[in-house]
Amino acid sequence: MDYSSNIILELTNNEKEPRIQATYASQLYGTFFGVFSRFYVQARKGSNDRVVNKIKFFLVNYKGEKNLKIITPFDKPEESDKDDFPPGWVIDLKVQHNIDALPIQENVELDLTRFFPKTNGMVVKDGDFITLFRVLIPMNGHIATDCKQPWVDRAFNNGVFDSEYFKRDGYYVNKRKEFEYSKDTFMGNQSGSYPSLNCVPSINKITFR
Questions:
Q1: Could you tell me which of 74, 6, 4, 68 has the C-alpha nearest to residue 33?
Q2: Pair type for strands 88-96 and 129-136
Q3: 188 pLDDT tier (thresholds 50, 70, 90)
Q4: Maximum CA pair distance of the chain?
Q5: pLDDT tens-digit series, residues 126-155
Q6: Host H or E run for residue 23
């Protein structure tokens, strides 16, 4: 029981922008948001593979009071560990709520030629997967486990309480415990690919056209 979506990779025509495809959706801070992507693709000489030169991301905040935004710079995509995700590539998608986040964010560019200069981009095969792995940056910009500030100071940013990382009751503030993803907490078929059945990653199968 594998849950995934699809990405259609067509060779980029210089006269026409690639179409925007839905690649991720989730909810944070009570806001439902979606991420869409343009893939810029060229053929790889002497091979049936293709090369993704760059990806432009678009984030749309649909419902909720707070806006999320994609945070740059991007990290280098990693080849997926077949024990965790299907074969292909994993791209960390860092998002954050802050006061300058807009309802719609456009053209956030991941330049893959910078990470893979020898191939002029990320080499993909027909039938591989691109996994977008969402990483939520706390409102104050510090990863909670890496910061020496008291929790009560880390829990607020410009007077806004970070309810994804902390919980409070009057004078008391506590760090939320990490959610456990394991076979013991999984509600579905135990033989299923349970890492793909939560809202953190988005698994997308590549189809050439």
A1: 68
A2: parallel
A3: low
A4: 66
A5: 999 999 999 999 888 755 455 555 666 778
A6: strand 21-28
